[in-house]
Specification:
A hairpin with a 5-residue loop joins β12 and β13. Helix content is 3%, strand content 40%. The strands form 8 sheets. Strands 2, 28, 29, 30, 31 and 32 form a 6-stranded antiparallel β-sheet that branches. It has a 5-stranded antiparallel β-sheet with strand order 1-5-4-3-33, with no helix packed on it. Strands 6-7-8-9 form a 4-stranded antiparallel β-sheet, with no helix packed on it. The chain has one domain: Neuraminidase (6 Propeller), CATH 2.120.10.30. The protein is built from 2 helices and 33 strands. The protein is mainly β and 455 residues long. The termini are far apart.
């Protein structure tokens, strides 16, 4: 099968088709037994264009959050709500004077619990606060101190509660690093020099270092004049990664040349006592990136007949003493949405989880996967025909300390039926049957990132 003959998956049809309304449902049916310690909410974000709107690309529809509330072993409610930002009233991201309107947000990518609040994030604008009942509260700019967009993938330090994040843009400053305190104060902002205006979706944090990936997916001014997302792959852009002390700035970044590739999502990073930093991410080569970009509505630079490839778990090892980088795939299975037990964020973790869907491979039925760094084993939980899992979220089981002693949550959609499920798996027995399945009252379109928010 080659990249030009695989089926095209529109951002407005099939499992990506948006729903047209907001609903509430109570006392949802449960198969199995929900762990009674799970008291809180699972929120998952994703693009869901309002009826009649075609944004031109699968990444830029208005955000909609699907929420499930759990407590006392029951699924108390399901509801879905658009994040009601100024874009729903037609406000665009550029002001009449040419400056950027950071409140013009689709808020469609991820969920962040931070400083006692809940935020919907997208990398092109400010965070938008939402209530525990999914009402939109409004934009948040750290008391007018945040002057750039905020990434959809900030990193919360599990030791200090500090929030590390960045913003990028099409005009200078192209990349800005930010650090905020656990109690909602923006502490510092540092401009970081990159080669040009690129799409920087995520970054990595390892112990006391930040790792930047300056990779060859670039802003194209000609595409910006058209509908859709103005980025494309460039063979002329020099791929590199940068290592910066967490408390440092632009002058402290050490840049290393790497193989061309792109990573939307990083799993984790850590540094050993020899000063070697290991970073793992889901990496796309030029073919894999262009294939998925074309399906989403972007511009592909592939020649006809190119054999298909897919995104795989990939590892870079950066030896700061020797000044070298070694890199290569961990596995050849096509995956996305890597996740770890967040208590191990920034330090050595044994287990990495991910999702596989039919959109990434010719195999039928979706999977949640578990990678064991110690044994090299890959364990899979297979869903039935037509079922497509989303990102797995790990929640530690009460009273346990083992890295994988907990639950994996995923919102699982059906490719063709008007139905969806919220599934809880035992992370220690991933191949076994689900611990619990919550039947949702409607289909849920494929989306992006979610979070468990404990009460």
């Amino acid at each position: 099968m080659d990249a030009t003959t695989e089926p095209t998956h529109s951002h407005l049809t099939g499992i990506n088709a948006p729903v047209a309304d907001e609903i509430d449902a109570w006392d949802l049916p449960v198969t199995g037994a929900l762990p009674p310690e799970l008291v809180g909410r699972y929120f998952r974000n994703g693009p869901n264009p309002v009826p009649g709107d075609d944004p031109g690309h699968g990444f830029i529809g208005q955000g909609m959050i699907h929420g499930i509330a759990l407590g006392a072993g029951k699924a108390k409610w399901y509801r879905n709500r658009w994040v009601r930002t100024p874009t729903m009233k037609g406000v665009r991201g550029v002001n009449p004077d040419g400056t950027r309107n950071l409140t013009a947000s689709v808020a469609n990518t991820s969920i962040l619990p931070y400083d006692g609040r809940i935020f919907a994030l997208v990398e092109s604008a400010l965070p938008f606060a939402i209530s525990p009942e999914l009402a939109t509260v409004g934009p948040f700019d750290f008391g007018s101190k945040l002057q750039t967009p905020m990434t959809a993938h900030p990193k919360t330090d599990p030791r200090t509660g500090e929030l590390l994040f960045f913003g990028y843009g099409m005009r200078p400053p192209l990349l800005t690093y930010h650090v905020a305190s656990a109690d909602g104060r923006l502490l510092r902002s540092e401009s970081i020099a990159v080669t040009g205006p690129t799409m920087i979706h995520d970054f990595a944090v390892a112990n006391d270092h930040v790792i930047w990936f300056d990779m060859p997916v670039i802003f194209d001014l000609q595409l910006a004049r058209k509908r859709g997302l103005p980025y494309r792959w460039s063979d002329d852009y020099p791929p590199r990664l940068g290592v910066m002390p967490r408390g440092g700035g632009n002058a402290d970044v050490r840049w290393f040349a790497v193989e061309p590739g792109y990573a939307f999502h990083f799993a984790n990073a850590h540094e050993d006592d020899r000063g070697v930093i290991t970073v793992e991410a889901v990496r796309y080569d030029v073919v894999a990136f262009n294939t998925i970009w074309d399906r989403l509505g972007g511009v592909s630079t592939l020649p006809p007949g190119t054999p298909a490839t897919g995104p795989v778990l990939y590892r870079w090892q950066i030896d700061l003493g020797a000044g070298t980088v070694s890199e290569g795939p961990v596995d050849d299975f096509w995956i996305e949405f890597p996740a770890v037990n967040y208590a191990f964020a920034g330090r050595l973790n044994r287990y990495t989880y991910a999702a596989n869907t039919p959109a990434l491979t010719h195999k039928t039925g979706g999977r949640i996967l578990k990678y064991d760094r110690t044994t090299g084993a890959r364990t899979e939980h297979h869903f039935g025909e037509g079922w497509v899992p989303g990102e797995p979220a790990f929640v530690q089981a009460q009273g346990t300390t083992g890295e994988d002693a907990g639950w994996l949550m995923s919102l699982v959609s059906h490719q063709s039926a008007n139905t969806a499920q919220f599934v809880v798996l035992d992370a220690t027995n991933l191949a076994g049957p689900p611990v619990a399945i919550v039947e949702l009252p409607r289909r849920v379109p494929a989306g992006f990132h979610g979070a468990w928010i404990a009460d």
